[in-house]
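Design job #97: recover the sequence.
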């Protein structure tokens, strides 16, 4: 929220269609201990956030061209030759095409996927008496369930699973039947079921000559963190700092290295957080053991130094040591 307010000058009044969640009730590790923590969280539909930011952008920059690709069949079709042509035609290409990003699809960069886990998601109707400003999360032996209220007595129910043998709607219904704290909050399911990749991943390399990947295209987080959008915004800010720094004559190699190190460090921190939760989750499936093994393996491989060369000031990288002065 702070980044949205700083960068987009979004104001509280802009969020009339959002829904505030203030606490999280947690049952983690299949034990009887249920804890409640303060958890300020704002839920809003992505179409609404998109519309809000779109309008702000148009007001600030009337020369900007925006193409909206909600219709998946109308996405830009890209291959290596077209991408190389685009690279020649522009000063910088910023790849913000999400988890299955263009740079990976055309083989310009590799993907390191850390596991196979998925989220099954559906909209549900919550009981009238449900505590509507509360988010619920609980673990079962085969994954976790998260219930996020979105207003009008509705909520989004998400199930995280390491693998699945049956249709996703059967899997989520089955998990809901076994739930301890979430089941009693839901009166019935009202939506169709969607399936999303939810494993962490990193693109390699993250940037190169005149191109840079940001957001989920660069690093994707496990939704457990609830921080994917925040991380994507931070990537975008850092990338603008890198591009500005290079255009002002700073070493391209050092700036791009700094970008990669920062993002790898963010993923290392994220994997550490995931492991802390998943090692105490008491999941009992081999598939979850494998998810955990892969996270530990990549964590060892990625270990980075956190001696950063640059800071960020007013959308531009600034050297932190005298070496550059
Ligand atoms: C189930 C689930 C729950 C999550 N919950 C949360 C949460 O509660 N909070 C949170 O902060 N994060 C959450 N995340 C993560 C969050 O959604 C992402 O981190 C965030 O959307 C990344 O933003 P992005 O702009 O990098 O990528 P995206 O949001 O994926 O945007 C990429 C865009 O690029 C477009 N695109 C792709 N290919 C092309 C092409 N060829 N031509 C033109 N356009 C193209 C796509 O259509 C899309 O609009 C969740 C993720 C999942 C899977």
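Job complete. Output follows.
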């Amino acid at each position: 929220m702070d980044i949205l307010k700083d960068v987009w000058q979004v104001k509280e009044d802009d969020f009339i269609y959002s829904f505030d969640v203030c606490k999280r009730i947690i049952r983690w590790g299949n034990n009887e201990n249920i804890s409640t923590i303060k958890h300020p969280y704002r839920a809003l539909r992505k179409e609404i956030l998109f519309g809000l930011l779109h309008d702000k952008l148009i007001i600030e920059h009337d020369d900007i061209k925006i193409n909206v690709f909600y219709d998946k069949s109308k996405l830009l079709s890209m291959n290596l030759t077209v991408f190389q042509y685009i690279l020649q035609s522009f000063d910088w290409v910023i790849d913000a095409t999400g988890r299955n990003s263009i740079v990976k699809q055309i083989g310009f960069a590799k993907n390191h996927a850390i596991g196979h886990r998925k989220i099954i998601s559906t909209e549900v109707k919550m009981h009238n008496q449900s505590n509507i400003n509360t988010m619920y999360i609980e673990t079962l032996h085969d994954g976790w369930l998260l219930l996020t209220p979105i207003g009008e007595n509705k909520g989004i129910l998400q199930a995280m699973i390491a693998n699945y043998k049956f249709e996703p709607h059967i899997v989520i219904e089955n998990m809901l039947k076994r739930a301890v704290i979430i089941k009693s909050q839901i009166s019935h399911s009202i939506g169709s079921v969607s399936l999303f990749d939810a494993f962490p991943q990193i693109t390699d390399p993250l940037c190169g000559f005149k191109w840079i990947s940001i957001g989920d295209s660069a690093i994707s987080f496990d939704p457990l963190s609830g921080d994917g959008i925040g991380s994507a915004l931070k990537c975008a800010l850092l990338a603008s700092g890198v591009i500005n720094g290079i255009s002002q004559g700073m070493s391209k190699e050092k700036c791009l290295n700094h970008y990669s190190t920062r993002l790898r460090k963010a993923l290392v921190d994220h994997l550490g957080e995931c492991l802390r939760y998943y090692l105490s989750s008491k999941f009992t499936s081999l598939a979850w053991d494998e998810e955990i093994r892969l996270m530990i393996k990549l964590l060892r491989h990625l270990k980075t130094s956190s001696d950063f060369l640059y800071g960020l000031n007013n959308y531009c990288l600034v050297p932190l040591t005298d070496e550059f002065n």
